[in-house]
Write a structure and sequence with these properties.
The protein is an alpha+beta fold. It is built from 3 helices and 8 strands. The protein binds zinc ion. The site of zinc ion has 7 residues, from helix 2.
Length: about 100
């Protein structure tokens, strides 16, 4: 069963997520941004298995400023960052995974 966030709040430098099982997760903006699963950040694997990734771009301070988080299609959340990046779709499962990493 997939857990869903029932409430999300931006508190200080962290995203606080309340899940429908009553537990709460806190993910720092930096960790959230560095975990961005979009193709531009994580790279795309082509048929032969080679990984294509954009050249490493230094993330600015604005890259770690979270403006808001939108829920997409009832299965994922989409953070909107101050530097304009908003292509990362974090499924609820992935979000739990990121939150659970030490
Ligand atoms: Zn990204």
């Amino acid at each position: 069963m997939v857990m869903r966030p029932v409430d999300m709040q931006l508190i200080g430098e962290e995203l606080a997520i309340k899940w429908d099982d009553g537990t709460e997760s806190f993910i720092s903006f930096e960790k959230l941004r560095r975990s961005c699963p979009c193709a531009g950040c994580k790279g795309e694997r082509e048929v032969m298995g080679n990984l294509y990734k954009n050249p490493e771009q230094p993330l600015t301070a604005e890259a770690f400023q979270l403006l808001r988080v939108e829920t997409v299609g009832g299965y994922a959340v989409q953070p909107v960052w101050r530097d304009g990046h908003a292509t990362g779709l974090y499924t609820f499962d992935y979000l739990r995974h990121v939150a659970g990493e030490a």
